[in-house]
From TrEMBL:
Gene Ontology molecular function terms on file: secondary active sulfate transmembrane transporter activity
Domain STAS span(s) in chain numbering: 465-666
The protein, known as: Solute carrier family 26 member 6
Membrane topology: Multi-pass membrane protein
InterPro entries tied to this protein: S04_transporter_CS, SLC26A/SulP_dom, SLC26A/SulP_fam, STAS_dom, STAS_dom_sf
Lineage: Eukaryota, Metazoa, Chordata, Craniata, Vertebrata
Basic and acidic residues bias (residue ranges): 538-551
Length: 690
């Protein structure tokens, strides 16, 4: 038999009272118990004070499966360690510090992350984007112009490279230390969700733009030239121009090939950060903290999902914070994780951070024994290594095409992030990109989809009437796809007027005008009636004073004989209270019996939102239309309570848990004893085949 023959619709019945918010609280026996902020703080502190959770190494290392993982981690660690050597020295050039400091940055932070990190597969260490951001800080605070010394000739100057490099190393280490402190603090207060403001299109566009900065910064090594360095906004454009001019107009100057230079053996002693520089690099340090964490946690979650384990976002902040802050004391520059090294670590059999520790030992051997073998390595070779490592980032330009098909707003975020980061420095570009991304979210909440809902016949399902054309006579159900707050409150009201066809503001205004016109006519008619009454009274008095008798009037004689007096009749004024005024063609419409506002998409209400709902309820009520609210989340109800929405006249009886409850309440004449039997719920099951 075919599948459709196996399917069978099974009806089932539900019978219950129609419940408003008060009824739901009674039936569900709502509890008022709440965990105090003090208890929450104690729980958080108690958890974070647990040493095993703070040092994950103590949890997983005793259970390390040596036989299963040791060989794979060893091979993976050696492979990644070999990659650290050229990448560390190459990315040191991006940070504008001597290459040997890239090796230091590939040793100390990796050991720290090995102890405190929770990801098993990412390879932390030097990263191109972070290095470029460091380089923008070092070149801004220690430009070449500050280290020019007079030469032997009268008008000649020369660059004091030793002093410049020493100052730049100090700057790089200090900003790295400060960024680590930021990460550590954010992790301790469990602020790991800050990375949610870095959407995937934003991160990918930002890394692509940073790759462009990297490529431009390496042009001087590729072409063997030494153009003037620029920093700040539009610095990328100035670099490009200076490189082209220096390359084309050689000015008959012969350039020698730059090499890595001296790689001292051994490790350096820790050095305190330059406290005097901290104030000038707060923004840069925070940007480094956010970007480094965002890249690491994004890649860590990818591997965690693939290999079925969990990465603690807050512990990752702590691990990276300690890696950078401690690394800064040993003249390292800021680190994150590298996609290329992580892929090599996984593909060569790496199963845990033991592979990372082994890679750090490889770097230690290089620093202690064989570092001098790489002193004559040309910097152009390091530039070529950087170009190769950036090819993955440059392929991200393909995102534009895919985003155009799937989500054009995300595509705009991608393009604007690229433009802003290319035109400005990476730190300023990141801030501008995040601001633009948040603006798109605000913009989308200001342009939600508004609709009137209708009932699908025989069900409790409600859909937009423009799609299903099933309106409910006398009842308007208004639905908005976004939350209600100060930025879209006015548009919410305008859409409500438009969709319901009832502009309450105009209706009430016209009603007031009619009332004023009626009062004016009543007053005028009353004055006229009073004047006519006085006139008739005078005429009556005059007629009474001059009676007329007729000799031949038999009836008059009889009347006089009978002693009857002359009777006067005065006409009463007409009723001046009934004044009819024609309808206003702009507001002449049939008012609905009730309007139901579906607030299920509303996840919070600010003071403007509460005031908006209060005004809607009040204005429609004055126009004779009852307003009900349904689908209110707990936070929304609490906001209404705190905003003094409810009082003796307005209670929670106007709140309903579902649209269907509110509709049935309206249809049954607002009876509190309404029950319904819903017979059309269906679900599908596969019947047994004999």
């Amino acid at each position: 038999m075919k599948d459709k023959d196996l399917r069978k619709r099974v009806p089932y019945h539900i019978q219950r009272d129609v419940l408003d918010e008060l009824g739901v609280d009674q039936v569900a026996e709502k509890s008022d118990f709440k965990i105090s902020a003090k208890e929450k703080f104690r729980e958080a502190v108690r958890f974070k004070s647990c040493f095993l959770s703070f040092v994950p190494l103590l949890t997983w290392l005793p259970r390390y499966p040596f036989r299963e993982n040791a060989i794979g981690d060893l091979i993976s660690g050696i492979s990644v360690g070999i990659m650290h050597l050229p990448q560390g020295m190459a990315y040191a050039l991006l940070a504008a510090v001597p290459p040997v400091f890239g090796l230091y940055s590939s040793f100390y932070p990796i050991l720290i992350y090995f102890i405190f990190g929770t990801s098993k597969h990412i390879s932390v260490g030097t990263y191109a984007v972070m290095s470029v951001m460091i380089g923008s800080v070092t070149e801004r605070l220690a430009p070449d112009s500050d280290f020019m010394i007079p030469g032997n000739d009268t008008n000649s100057t020369s660059l004091d490279i030793v002093s410049r490099d020493a100052e730049r190393v100090k700057i790089a280490a200090t900003v790295t230390f400060l960024s680590g402190i930021f990460q550590l603090l954010l992790g301790l207060v469990r602020f790991g969700f800050v990375v949610t403001y870095l959407s995937e299109p934003l991160v990918r566009a930002y890394t692509t733009a940073a790759a462009i900065h990297v490529i431009v910064s390496q042009l001087k090594y590729s072409f063997g030239i030494n153009p003037q360095r620029y920093s700040g906004p539009l610095s990328l454009i100035y670099i490009i121009i200076a490189t082209v001019v220096s390359w084309q107009m050689d000015l008959k100057t012969e350039y020698g090939v730059e090499v890595v230079g001296k790689i001292p053996s051994g490790l350096q002693a820790p050095v305190a950060p330059a406290v005097s520089l901290l104030g000038s690099m707060v923004g840069d340090a925070f940007a480094l903290a956010v970007v480094g964490y965002g890249i690491a946690i994004s890649l860590g979650r990818i591997f965690a999902l693939k290999y079925a384990y969990k990465v603690d976002s807050n512990q990752e902040l702590i691990a990276l914070g300690l890696s950078n802050s401690i690394g800064g004391l040993f003249n390292c520059f800021a680190i994150s994780c590298s996609m290329s090294r992580s892929m090599v670590q996984v593909s060569t059999g790496g199963k845990s951070q033991v592979a990372g520790a082994i890679s750090a030992l490889v770097i230690l051997v290089i620093l202690l024994k064989i570092g001098e073998l790489f002193e004559e390595l040309p910097k152009a070779v390091l530039a070529a290594i950087i170009y190769v490592n950036l090819q993955g980032m440059m392929k991200q330009f393909g995102d534009i095409r895919s985003l155009w098909r799937t989500n054009k707003v995300d595509m705009v975020v991608w393009v604007m992030t690229l433009i802003l980061t290319v035109l400005f420095n990476p730190d300023m570009g990141l801030a501008a990109s995040i601001a633009f991304s948040i603006l798109t979210v605000v913009f989308r909440t200001q342009l939600p989809k508004y609709s009137i809902l209708g009932q699908v016949p025989g069900t409790d399902i409600y859909k937009p009437v423009e799609d299903y054309n099933q309106e409910i006579p006398g009842i308007m159900i208004f639905h908005s796809s976004a939350t209600l707050y100060f930025a879209n409150a006015e548009m919410y009201i305008d859409a409500l007027y438009e969709k319901t066809g009832v502009d309450v503001a105009k209706l009430l205004s016209h009603k007031k005008k009619l009332e004023a016109k009626r009062l004016r006519k009543e007053k005028k008619a009353a004055k006229k009636a009073k004047k006519e009454a006085k006139k008739r009274a005078k005429e009556a008095v005059k007629a009474a004073e001059e009676p007329k008798f007729s000799d031949t009037d038999e009836s008059g004689e009889e009347a006089e004989a009978n002693g009857d007096v002359h009777k006067l009749s005065v006409k009463e004024p007409k009723d001046v209270g009934a004044v009819e005024v024609g309808p206003d063609p702009d507001t002449d419409t049939t008012l609905p019996q009730a309007i139901i506002l579906d607030l299920s998409p509303v996840n919070f209400l600010d003071t403007v939102g509460v005031k908006t709902l209060r005004n809607i309820y009040k204005d429609y009520g004055e126009a004779g239309v009852q307003v009900y609210f349904c689908g209110c989340q707990r936070g929304v109800v609490e906001s209404m309570e705190k905003g003094d929405f409810f009082n003796e006249k307005v209670t929670k009886s106007i709140l309903f848990s579902s649209v269907h409850d509110a509709v049935l309440y309206c249809q049954q004449g607002n009876s509190e004893e309404v029950q319904y039997i819903l017979m059309s719920y269906t679900h599908t099951r596969i019947s047994e085949v004999s």
